[in-house]
Structure formats: C-alpha cells, structure tokens
C-alpha cells in the first residue's frame, strides 16, 4: 500500500463511527433505545460505506485497515456491555464476546512486541466475518425490540447459541494462527 494519505473519506467515516460510540452509550444508559438504535444503524451504514468508498475511490490505507476492525470491536464490545448491564442479553454471552476480543487484541500486541511482522499475515477469517455479522444482528434485534416494544424474545434467544459458537470458534482460530506465527518467528530467529 505504501505511504498514503490517512485523511481519506473512508477513514474519516471510520473515525466518525468510533466517535459515535459514546453517544450510543449515553443513549443506552438513559434508556433512550430509539436513539441508541438510530445511532447504531448510522454506525452500521458508515461501516458499509467506508469499505465501499475505500474500494471505489481507491483510498485503501494501512490506517484504515487497522481502524475499521478496531471501530467494529469498540462498537460491539460497548454494545454488549451496555445490553448485558441492563439485562437485555445474558451476561455470559457479553463476557464471551469481550474475552474473545481481549484475547485477539492482546495476542496481536504480544506478537508485535515479540517482533513478528504482522503486515501481510493478518487477514479477516470467514469465521470472524460470520461472528461479526451475528453479533451485529443480535445487537440490532435487541435494540429494535427495546426501541419499539416488539416481542421478539424467541428470535433473539435463538441467536444466543450461534453467536456464542462462532465467537468461540473464531477466537480459537485466531489463537491457533497466532501461535503458528509465533512459532514461525522463533524458527526464523533460530536460523
């Protein structure tokens, strides 16, 4: 990708998504679920739009490739914490989602500080994409239910196990890949 301008339209949208998260938290805490749902929808739109614009405008950047998944993690972890605190989703599920993301971020930090070159090695996995989609769908449905007084408890509850399953699987795959990268790096250092 080379040296590129970091202040691209896609990156500005991603930063805007990160900055929306405190407003979503305030809406959650004030139990203004309609506002939280609207902001969550707006964040989702910016998420799709930044990726689309990065491709169309050819404005992909190293910063964007790091910021976009970070923005997703910030939004989802915050949403799961808020919804679990208000007992809108099970506490165990929120812990699982948060723990997976802490393991991934901590693992990346450990690999980086151990000297592993991550630039070309980190790619989104299909299991991670499914996990993110299921987590977003769950938050969307719970907020929609809370905002508009819908009775979708059965549909929401049916998502708990798939969210937990893919959260666990994708976390395990990332740990497996991280251990492989660490072993490769150690083998290269010994040669």
Q: Which structural traits does this protein have?
A:
191 residues, mainly alpha, 6 helices
Describe this structure in words.
With 191 residues, the chain is mostly helical. Helix content is 80%, strand content 0%. α2 runs antiparallel to α5.
Structural class: mainly alpha
- Give the mean pLDDT: 87
- The DSSP helix count reads 6
Termini separation = 29 Å
Largest sheet: none
How many E-type strands? 0
Strand content: under 5%
Written as H for each helix and E for each strand, in order along the chain, the element string is: HHHHHH
Radius of gyration: 18 Å
Helical content band? over 70%
Please state the overall shape, judged from the principal axes of the Cα atoms: globular
Summarize the structure.
The protein has six helices and no strands. With 191 residues, the chain is an all-alpha fold.
List the helices and strands and how they pair.
Elements (H helix, E strand, L loop, with lengths): L8 H21 L3 H24 L5 H24 L5 H23 L12 H23 L4 H38 L1
Helix pairs in contact: 1-2, 1-3, 2-5, 3-4, 3-5, 4-6, 5-6
């Amino acid at each position: 990708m080379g040296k590129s301008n970091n202040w691209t339209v896609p990156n500005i949208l991603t930063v805007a998504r990160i900055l929306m998260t405190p407003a979503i938290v305030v809406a959650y805490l004030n139990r203004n679920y309609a506002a939280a749902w609207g902001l969550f929808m707006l964040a989702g739109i910016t998420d799709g739009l930044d990726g689309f614009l990065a491709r169309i405008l050819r404005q992909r950047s190293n910063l964007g490739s790091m910021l976009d998944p970070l923005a997703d993690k910030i939004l989802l972890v915050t949403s799961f914490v808020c919804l679990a605190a208000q007992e809108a989703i099970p506490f165990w599920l929120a812990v699982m989602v948060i723990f997976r993301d802490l393991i991934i971020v901590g693992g990346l930090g450990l690999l980086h500080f151990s000297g592993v070159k991550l630039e070309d090695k980190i790619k989104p996995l299909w299991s991670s994409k499914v996990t993110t989609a299921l987590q977003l769908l769950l938050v969307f449905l719970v907020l929609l239910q809370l905002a508009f007084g819908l009775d979708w408890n059965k549909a929401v509850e049916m998502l708990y196990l798939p969210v937990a399953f893919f959260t666990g699987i994708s976390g395990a795959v990332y740990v497996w890949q991280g251990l492989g990268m660490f072993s490769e790096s150690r083998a290269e250092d010994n040669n």
